[in-house]
Amino acid sequence: MRGPVAWWNDPWRPPRVLVAVTIGYLIWSLLPVLIAVLFSFNDGKSRTTWQGFSFRWYWGDETRSVWHDATLHQALWQTLKLGVIATLITVPLGVMLAIGIDRWRGRLPSGANMLMLVSFVIPEVLLAVALLFAITSLALPIGLGTSAQVVGLITFQIAYPAVLVRARLATIGNQYEEAAMDLGASPMQALRRVTVPMLFPAIFASTVLVFADVIDNFVLVRYLSGNSSTEPVSVKIYNTARAAPTPALNALATLLLAAALIAVTVGYLFYRRMTRGDATAGKGIAAFAGEA
Amino acid sequence: MPVPNRPGPNRRQFLQRAALLAVGTPALVAFLDACSKGGQSSSAPSLTIAAPSSPVKWDIPADNTAIADGLGPEKGGTLQLYSYADYMAPEAVKSFEEKYGVSVQISTFNDTDEALTKIRGGNVDYDIFFPSYDQIGRLVTGGLVRPLNHSYVPNIKNVWPFFANPWYDQEWRYSVPYTVYTTGIGWRNDQVPADIGALKNPYEALWDPAYKNKTAVIDDWHTAMAMVLLKLGITDVNTSSADDLNKVGEALSQLVAATSPKVTITMYSDLPAGQIGLSQMWSGDIINAQSYLPEGVDVDILRYWFPADGKGLVDNDLMVSLRGGKNPVLAHLFINHMLDPEVAKQNFSAIGYQPPQVSINPDSLVADGFIPENLKSAIVRPEYFDVGYRILELDPANDTAWHNVWRTFKAGGS
Amino acid sequence: MTVAEAPSQPAKPGRTRTNPLWPTLAMPGIIWLLVFFLAPMYVVLAIVFGQVDPIFRTPVPVWNPLQWDATQFTYVLSRIGPGGAYGPALIRTGVYVLIASVLCLAIAFPVAYYVARLSGRWAGILLAALIAPFWISYMMRMLAWVNLLQDDGWVNRIASLGGLFDVRVHWLTGQPVVVVLGLVYGYVPYMILPLYAGLDRLPQSTLEAARDLGANRVASFWRVTLPMCRPTIVAAVLLTCLPMLGDYFTSDMLSASPKTAMVGNLINDSVQSPGQTGQAGAFVMLVLLATVLPMFYYVRVTARADEVST
Fold this sequence. Notes:
By secondary structure, chain A is mainly α. Chain A has helices at about 5-10, 15-40, 55-60, 70-105, 105-120, 125-135, 145-155, 160-170, 175-180, 185-215, 220-225, 235-240, 245-275, 285-290. Chain A folds into two domains: about 1-35; about 70-290, Orthogonal Bundle (MetI-like fold), CATH 1.10.3720. Helices cover about 70% and strands about 0% of the residues of chain A. In chain A, helix 8 (about 160-170) packs across helix 10 (about 185-215). The two termini of chain A are about 40 Å apart. By secondary structure, chain B is α/β, with parallel strands linked by helices. Chain B folds into two domains: about 80-180 and about 315-365, Periplasmic binding protein-like II (D-Maltodextrin-Binding Protein, domain 2, 3-Layer(aba) Sandwich), CATH 3.40.190; about 180-315 and about 390-410, Periplasmic binding protein-like II (D-Maltodextrin-Binding Protein, domain 2). Helices cover about 35% and strands about 15% of the residues of chain B. In chain B, strands 1, 2, 3, 4, 5, 6, 7, 8, 9 and 10 form a ten-stranded mixed β-sheet that branches. The longest helix of chain B is centred in the first third of the chain and has 25 residues, at about 10-35. Chain B is globular. Chain C is mostly helical. Chain C has a two-stranded antiparallel sheet with strand order 1-2. Chains in contact: A-B, A-C, B-C. At the A-C interface, helix 2, helix 4, helix 5, helix 6 and helix 7 of A face helix 1, helix 3, helix 4, helix 5 and helix 7 of C.
């Protein structure tokens, strides 16, 4: 038997402190959310006192459940709409931008790179205010409402796929593409048949992250919303939280969480199918997140 | 030695870029000018301010006349209301929806300044707006509201008589009253056992360090600052004296230091939830607070104070029909619907704010069990409107000065 | 594909070949950013240096730089010193963001290190659990905390050990600690992911070499691991703490008191307020500067590092 000192000095012992910190963090991070999900099934109006289990706030209550209250399920619909439209436009745009900037040498692309990085870290409220000013001062074909929200979201999120794809391109390097071109492919063909398939992990990761970020977005969509039919779930929660929220709000957020989980699971399964037989198969989630 | 791969611009490139900038900017400017939304500055040279001592009858310009008589309601549209949150009984809305077979949507704002800016921005199509009369001047001058066709609103006969010809809108050309309310102090006596109403200067209680972290003031610049003026003994709550405003600024700093109040409009749910114990409140809020009390807590703990002689802040909110709305006939019908005695009473019990209906007798509300005895002082009597202090619209320069003080307060600065 | 179908662009002597494919790909994104990111910034300038409608006091943008009027901007500038009206809010923002970033790093680094390097077969699940907060509405997480911190919420209940002591701390009225912790709670997931990505790439062989050469745990961490992942840490900190500068809803939801107002609150309160919109624009410009300058510096430093390393 080793003494305690030897046990402490054993270089191969499991990192207990780190494990403790990680578990502690996960609990701190997820517990309030689990409580919120729990109370969405509360039977009474309170969000802090448990009064029994029921689906009242999902479809039971005649006026205030998510199913019956038009404002609530309208908010859910708006969130999903924004999520899908914004993601569908952002990801291709960002991927193309990343590939273009990465391969194009010169001053313009490095300026564009700088612009993209700034749009990545800029506090959201600055972009929201700037777009609000632009839309209300100029007679643009875009008015406040869904179209303005989509435009703002794309502008804010475009850096996400761009950065992820660039990082991946840096890891992959030029050699596969150059090999393909040596074998006679044109740059376009090399891109299409060699590079882009290798980028699939990064593209999927960015799709998932952009979607998650968009449905969660608050500042941009609030500033650029028109009337209350264009207010997504996050704004509804904010508006109602300052007054007197019912567990219907928890139900709404739980439904949103479920939608996001389904989207990610579907994406992951789809990714697994597509990359069957690849070298990265079997590395699981880490590959999906572009880190393999 | 590493060689930087980005040499700086040489002279020729620099001159090229400067030339590009010099040529491009005026082109950009001209382009933006063309795209710009004109009509942002109003054509009227000055703002007419209405006051009880100088009543105003608003003009009806030729390009903004009321709708014709006898039109049928618009079919298939959605009536858009724009009001505070929780300021409209869902049952009242539902009964209107069923009566006319339309749908109604309520969008909410947090403060009236923001609402006016949004309406003026022109991107929204709200039909009915619920301002207070301190905005009627700007609404009319800016051409944002539609004059009312009285033939659609026969229920005007149900409201207190002086509202048929109020000083802020003589001959009720543009507005009808929605609710009446006073602004006093509300508290719950389990957290604040003292009788605030019995103090010499009840407004002072908000500065009392004994109530630190338990207080709140209303997040409306004019209402909160008017209360500070009353606390200081200044009865002109629309003062333009820089001296008075300085005193208000100092008092507000002392307030933050002494009790660190929340600045919000949700005291109707925060007080019953126990988050705060003492707050500046609108009379409707304390009545509404009854329905937010958690189970097991008696209504009896709520209290409200307003000067018994009526010399406090008294106001009313309006309903106006916005010009940008797409359903003017429905707007008129909705306004008429809300003035119906049954609907108004239903609204009263749902939102707590009293409608100025003749059928509601202030003296019998307690006897009928509508309002509990401990909240008797929250009932609004017509006599208050003769002696109370009204929050009026301010002219732009004064408005700026007031807002500067408020901005400093909200920034947590000195 | 035969050798005859070689790439169509022959290399020009003395000039790097730029295949038109790359600019074509990049152009849609670049144009989008120019139109919807840069151009609105010019509109902000036009409003800050523009006029104000005399009656409604809504902003009237002035497009021509030669006609710009600096009154609104100087009004703000004159008040942002420590003694001015807005000074405390700006200082407070800096302090909150600094403390929150340090706390975020203190929490995120161990977690990311563990998951990236030491978790073995649990990596997938842990990573999913780490990404999960992104899918849950940020508002919902904040709302959950508002509930826990209410006077009758669980935090007070636990602190009073189920009724032993009477603990009635008013967490939600203007407590800076609560706001800072709220910021940490909201932004720590954004720091974990980049740290994870960077730590994942550290070469294990170098670390093992350090241990082989006799360094103990602490020394090998301090002298080998930490310097190697410094660029990752800097990137992660920038990614988290720069967006924090614009946060206003954390203070709004957890405090609602002027005592904890941040610069985001200043912007949010004045944007739609008559006569104050220009001031909001001025704050937007100031915060933009505070964001862009570190980014410029960071890009220059990393670019130079690239040059030196190759």
